[in-house]
Amino acid sequence: HHQARVSNPVEVYRSAPSSSSGYALVGDEEGNLVANPSSLDDMLMTSAGVGKGWKLLRFGFMDETNHPFLIRWIVDRTFTPSGGANSFSSPAGTGDFGVIYPGGNAGQAYDLTIDVSGAGVTCDTAQMYVAEQYRTLQAPLGFGPFDPLVHIVYNKEAAPTIGSSNDGFWLDGSPFDGVYVDPDEFDKFDITNVPPLNYSNFLFGIQVDPASTTDTVRPFEYHLDIGNLVSGSNLDLQQIDQSYLVLKYGVTLNNTIPPIQVEVDGQAASTTASSIHFQLTCGENMNSGAPIKVLLYNWVTGTWDLRGNATLSTTDQTFDFAVTNQPQNYISTSAATPRYVKARIQLFTHLTLNNNDQLRIDQAQWLITR
Asked: Are residues 359 and 312 in contact, defined by beta-carbon separation less than 8 angstroms?
């Protein structure tokens, strides 16, 4: 018999007003409401939150009409001003998740706290940048275009009381594109006053499970199943340093067979897991737009399970593929392969013959929370 672990969540970041007058929405100089379904804010949580699983998340919004929508949060450890589509350069642990909200009273602002433990979110640095986005519902990704009828709620009353944040935020200006550009989109409330009359940060709070542990697992070997090695070795998969494992297309006569397929193997610290995130930092040298698939090996069923798709660019990107449902199935319990984890990366193309395109992998890793 095993007793379930129970621990009280610890608050590691809080930016919230103490009275209703401290909440704010984005408006123009005449006081008219301005569409604001997407913004970015910097946050520094306490050290107690580093590497711990997120349990409770506090945030706020105002819905102009009573309708369902999707809320997406993207968490990164760095932010490059004027970086365009690649302003976010490296995920801060496992931070791209969301929820569907069924709708609320039209025109009413909400200050909500929800349980996000099922998303398996962790942050491996105290400093982070959080994008909050409100989207319409749309298949197959679940989210569609930005929803201008839903507005982010801010804390204008005071600085964060737990953790800290620089005063100000990056407003995703029209057209909404999820790209936050400095200085054009950096904003504060009452910015015309010097100093500003109000603070300018998200209404936001984070509570973590102090008993959780997140292990970083990196490959101890790789296998090139299809394709040709151009350069590099397993050592080049260990960190983001622009030192790559570079692979070239192999010849395939069937477009259902990937011209590049590579497997990476790692060893977890334990067979226990509450979530697994496989992260891949990679790119290609030409013909931007090639699709990849990432599969993880399920040791219980003996099958490779598709965990996600992505589209490559000639600029390196970091992709995150999550398992929050029975993640322990993806860790071996066999004595022959103790605590092994396996990932398979497949790159596809419209071409069925060899070409000069190359897949470059800068880093592959698992983040396992237990």
From this structure: yes
Q: DSSP state, 249?
A: P
Look up tokens 């600085």; give the residue: 159
CA distance 105 to 225: 55
Rounded to whole angstroms, how far apart are CA atoms 5 and 10? Answer: 15
- What is the chain's length? 370
| Residue 189: how many other CB atoms lie within 10 Å | 20
Quick count: other Cβ atoms within 10 Å of Cβ 83? 15
For the chain, 370 residues long, give each residue's pLDDT as a single digit of tens: 333 444 689 999 999 999 999 999 998 777 889 999 999 999 999 999 998 889 999 999 999 999 999 999 988 877 776 544 445 444 445 578 889 998 878 999 999 999 998 787 888 889 999 999 999 988 666 778 999 999 999 999 999 999 999 999 998 877 888 888 766 678 888 766 666 678 999 999 999 999 888 888 999 999 999 999 999 999 999 998 999 999 998 877 777 889 899 999 999 989 999 889 999 999 988 767 888 999 999 999 999 999 999 888 888 888 889 898 899 999 999 999 999 999 999 998 754 444 677 899 999 999 998 8
Helices marked H in the chain: none
Please give the Cα distance from 255 to 348 (Å, whole number).
8
If 0-12 CB within 10 Å is exposed, 13-18 middle and 19+ buried, where does residue 234 land? middle
pTM exceeding 0.85: no
Query: Residue 250 carries which DSSP code?
Result: P
> Edge-to-edge strand order for the sheet containing 154-155?
23-24, 154-155, 201-202
